[in-house]
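#structure-requests
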Amino acid sequence: MTGEFEYDVFLSHSSQDKAVVRDVAERLQTDGLKVWFDEWVLKPGDNIPAKIEAGVEHSRVLVLCLSAHAFGSDWASLEAGTFRFRDPLNKDRRLIQLRLDNAPIKGSLAQFLYINWSPADREQEYPKLLGAYRPPATPNYPENVRNRFLTEMAGSARLWAWEDRNEQPMVDWFTTF
C-alpha cells in the first residue's frame, strides 16, 4: 500500500465475532497484507483505546465487521469513528463493510455497498475483499507515448487536460511514475 500507512487494514469487530474475524485476518495476512488485528497488536499493559486509535489512524483501510453483536455494542461511537474513512473517491482511505450476518445495517452506513460474509458466500466474496486493498494496475503505455507526455508536461501545468491519441487519460500513469 502507500508508504504513509503502517497497516493496510484495520479490522473493527465485536469480540463475539472474534473467531470469524480471526480467519479473515489470517487470510489477508497470508495474501501479503499488513493487518491490524487486536490479538496480534495489543499487549498486556497497553492502553487499549489509545492503541486502537493509533491503529485506525495508521491504517489505509478500515474493515467494519457488521453483525448483530456489533450493532448491540457501543454503536454510536463505532459509527462516529468511521467518518475519517469516508473519502468519496476512496483514494486515500477506504471504509469497507463486511456483513457477517443478516442483522439490518443501521444509520448512515446503510447507504454503502457491503461485502456479504455469510458462510455460504465467503469463497465467492473473498476476491472482492482482497481487491479492495490492491491499488489499480498501472497502465503500461508505450515508450513513445510516455516520452510525448513528459515533453508536453514539461511546458504545461495542466496535467488533467492531456490525453493520448486513444483518449486514455495519462494522469494515472504520471501519478505512479
